[in-house]
Amino acid sequence: MTSDTYFPPAEVEGGWRYAQSPEEVRDRAHLDPEKLLLGQREFEWHWGGHAWSMAVIRHGVLAAEFGSYNVLDGSRFDLWSATKSFTSIAFGILLADQAQRETGTNPLALDSRAYELIPEGYPLTDDRKALITVRQLLTMTGGFVGSVRGTAPGTPTALGDGLFEHALGFRTNRHGVDVSRLLADPGTTWEYSDSGFSHLSLVFAHVAGKEIDVFLNERMFQPIGIPPVSWTRSGGGNLIGPHTVPHTGLVLSARELARCGYLLLHGGSWEGSELISSKWLDLATQPSQEFNPHYGYAFWVNSAGTLWTDAPRDAFALMGFQGSRCWVVPSLDLVIARVGSGPPIIHDHFFPRRILDAVI
To answer: What CATH number is given for 83-210+237-244 in this structure?
Structure first.
């Protein structure tokens, strides 16, 4: 059985096939076991003091698992901003669903005006918001204040205020940051903005009639053998929501994240069923705009060969705080997944290079 036809059963049914000896690592996964061991020692040295777990999949084989002593195979961690890529996946599936409907019944497209789908967003706090599209929300080009300028450190809210009230510009966050006014006209700049991305949860809930976490549990996680996931919701009561937080809060283990990466490696198909449109993945994992060549539709991409100079150009990744990573390299039939509680920042040239160096 080849990696083209092999898909791992659920963990409760046996899970990944794995290399049981250095010889099998070399012969089945075509990775150098001595270089992997060297990488493991370096990871343990650099990431000591943090809880973390890592899985390396090549040719459909779980070739290596590294981690701190206090983490089990099934230990789950918040993926932080790597969660954004799953929101992108949810939109890719939803857009494909919408495209299959009869002509004239499609309420959602990439160039749909987002605020026309968010009744809670009125009155607009900036008239330019009327022009923002779903595409711009997914590609960080909506013109929202964000972290590049250092003016909006995330979207934590004060007691009694809601995440979505802040994102829509009706409340400051607990740091006193006001995002009511756009920093630029939509489509004219790239700015990494959690408050801007938060709008996607509201759009999704109104169009799909269900939350992103419920939708992906049904359409992606369950079909590939992942038990129901935990994913943060925000709001409720007298606040907008509760809605899935689209930019953080999805909790997975390294093996589960690797399973998701393996689905992406196979173009969104699992055991002959297309769970995610391959056209969407092709779009999402290429540069999405002219301002930042390293950003697709909530995926980080290496198409220019300048984000990760040691990696093939078809490499792309889901990336988040505390070292949350899922690297997918189609040309090498390789997935690397890492979850953990830190360190807050990891060096993305050191980390994957130790695995890439082991490729035979």
So the answer is: 3.40.710.10
Query: If one looks up domain 11-78+253-356 in CATH, what number appears?
Result: 3.40.710.10
pLDDT tens-digit map of 277-300: 999 999 999 999 999 999 999 999
Four-CA torsion 223, 224, 230, 234, nearest 10 degrees: -60
Whole-number Cα distances in Å, 75 to 67, 140, 335, 353: 11, 31, 19, 25
| Burial degree of 324 (CB within 10 A; 0-12, 13-18, 19+) | buried
**Contact criterion met (CB below 8 Å) for 153 and 147:** yes
Comparing C-alpha atoms, which of 265, 262, 258, 353 is closest to residue 308? 353
**Fold: same for 11-78+253-356 and 83-210+237-244:** yes
Q: Is a pLDDT exceeding 70 seen at residue 239?
A: yes
> Which amino acid, one-letter code, is at 175?
H
| Number of Cβ within a 10 Å radius of residue 107 | 11
Q: What is the mean pLDDT of residues 339-346?
A: 90
The pLDDT assigned to 101 comes to 73
Nearest to 197 by CA among 344, 322, 87, 317: 87
Name which of 38, 82, 19 is nearest 356 in CA terms.
Answer: 38
Q: According to the model, what pLDDT value does residue 173 have?
A: 83
pLDDT at 163 over 70: yes
Query: Using CA atoms, how far apart are residues 274 and 56, in angstroms rounded to an integer?
Result: 24
Give phi and psi for 93, each to the nearest 5: -65, -45
Strand partners for 55: 65, 337
Residue spans per domain, the chain: 11-78+253-356, 83-210+237-244
Check if the beta carbon of residue 353 is closer than 8 Å to that of residue 42. no
Distance CA 77, CA 149 (A): 28
- What single letter denotes the amino acid at residue 312? P
**DSSP string of 46-75?**
HTTTS-EEEEEEETTEEEEEEE-TT--TT-
